[in-house]
Amino acid sequence: MPLDQIGQTLASFYDTLVAEGVPEHLAVLVRRVRQSESPSEPGTDDAQEARAGARSAHLALVVEDEPEVRALAEALLEETELSVIGCDSAEAALAVLQARGGEVALVFADVRLAGEMDGLQLARAVATLWPRARLVITSGCAVARPDVPEQAVFIPKPWRPLDVLVEAERASSAPPPPLT
């Protein structure tokens, strides 16, 4: 079976895997499959340039179920170098990550979300499957540090815009961590 078919098959199981918790050895395999996908697929020069442009874009995902808070965070992050996509649930964020995970530089997520998954479950999935994305978790409730992935930053609500902008700057300018 070709490697790209294996990757597509694994991708079709993401939602189930993420909901149940992905074993680290499987997450490493998924990252390797993504890295090995060829950036120079057959096609016209225009199509190749468009794909290259899409890969170089940096996205910020704002995952918040309160529309006013999400709109505020989106407006704030639109003032940075990042393109912004808002999601009201972890499931919607996972759909974006599945489609454009390599472009996502920042995931800014509330702990309490609409849907079956909460922000901590989303953060664990992102930390495992998309380790190059900077994770920022926020909540108006206290969150125990062991519940937050090690590489995530926690900003309590109400957050200060400057704190969010600092994390966006780090996400867009800092080199991503190496894949293991």
UniProtKB/TrEMBL annotation:
InterPro entries: Bact_response_regulator, CheY-like_superfamily, Sig_transdc_resp-reg_receiver
Coiled coil regions, renumbered to chain: none
Keywords: Phosphoprotein
Family matches, as Pfam families: Response_reg
Keyword Acyltransferase in annotation: no
GO biological process: phosphorelay signal transduction system
Residues recorded as bearing 4-aspartylphosphate in the entry: 110
Stored SUPFAM superfamilies: CheY-like
Domain Response regulatory: 59-172
Protein name: Response regulator
Originating species: Methylobacterium durans
